[in-house]
Design goal:
Number of helices: 8
Keywords: Cell membrane, Membrane, Transmembrane, Transmembrane helix, Transport
Helix content: 55-70%
Order of helices and strands: HEEHHHHHHH
Structural class: mainly alpha
Radius of gyration: 21 Å
Protein name: Probable queuosine precursor transporter
Function: Involved in the import of queuosine (Q) precursors, required for Q precursor salvage.
Membrane topology: Multi-pass membrane protein
Family: Belongs to the vitamin uptake transporter (VUT/ECF) (TC 2.A.88) family. Q precursor transporter subfamily.
């Protein structure tokens, strides 16, 4: 209704979030960490699907972003940021374990020598992949989460699909550009044309997957919101 000065007062929607006391956050965090570790291993292999150049982790990585969207929407930016940092701390730990496994002295028979070479070939490039993934995911996911939460502050519980899609475009672009710039040489991409193919395909693919899964993400978000006892109580 009109204020005493004659101007109308518009109430800004208050964003609602949940605390992390229930088991749902822990389950999603565990899945995100496992997906990220597996993605880093798969990303060390270059994959050629006809004219399309990508890496072996292409089918896994979008899952981590979808989980990040769910956590940002339900628990807020600070909690999502903790999940990002925790996932990468575990990924770095896994990379350290790979290095220890590689440098440990093995047997000298032909089978063990071949096995050592295979392990080095499969896990050896992973630390550099982790570095690229760390910088890319940290920047991309943080921007993705921040934009989603800022949009929620404007719209409240409305327009979830717009928050998911809008934040994903920016987050995936930053993530893909940083990661591909570091990972391209590791998987054998050296010329600019192939790099452009690799980066563009990665961005389009990951963004398209997130867009296709928006209905599923919306359902998951709604399901968790209804089962989180503290949803609507906690602050961002």
């Amino acid at each position: 209704m009109p204020s005493p000065s004659g101007s109308s007062t518009l109430s800004k929607p208050t964003p609602r979030f949940a605390s992390i006391g229930s088991p749902y956050f822990g389950i999603m965090l565990a899945i995100m960490a496992v997906v990220l570790i597996l993605s880093n291993i798969g990303a060390s292999k270059g994959v050629a699907l006809g004219p399309i150049l990508t890496d072996g982790g292409f089918f896994l990585f979008p899952i981590a972003y979808i989980l990040g969207d769910v956590m940002s929407e339900v628990y807020g930016f600070k909690v999502a940021r903790k999940a990002i940092i925790t996932s990468f701390a575990l990924s770095v730990f896994a990379s350290l374990c790979y290095w220890i496994i590689i440098v440990l002295p093995g047997f000298n028979d032909d089978y063990s020598t071949a096995k050592q070479a295979a392990i080095e070939g499969a896990l050896g490039p992973v630390p550099l992949i982790v570095l690229g993934s760390l910088l890319a995911f940290l920047a991309g996911q943080t921007i993705n989460s921040w934009i989603l939460v800022k949009m929620k502050a404007r719209t409240g519980e409305k327009s979830l699909w717009a928050r998911l899609m809008g934040s994903s475009v920016v987050g995936e672009f930053v993530d893909t550009l940083i990661f591909c710039s570091i990972a391209a040489s590791v998987i054998g991409i050296t010329d600019f044309g192939s790099f452009l193919n690799y980066a563009l395909v990665g961005f389009v693919y990951k963004t398209a997957v997130e867009f296709l899964f928006v209905p599923v993400t919306v359902l998951v978000v709604g399901w968790i919101k209804k089962r989180e006892p503290s949803y609507g109580v906690a602050a961002a």
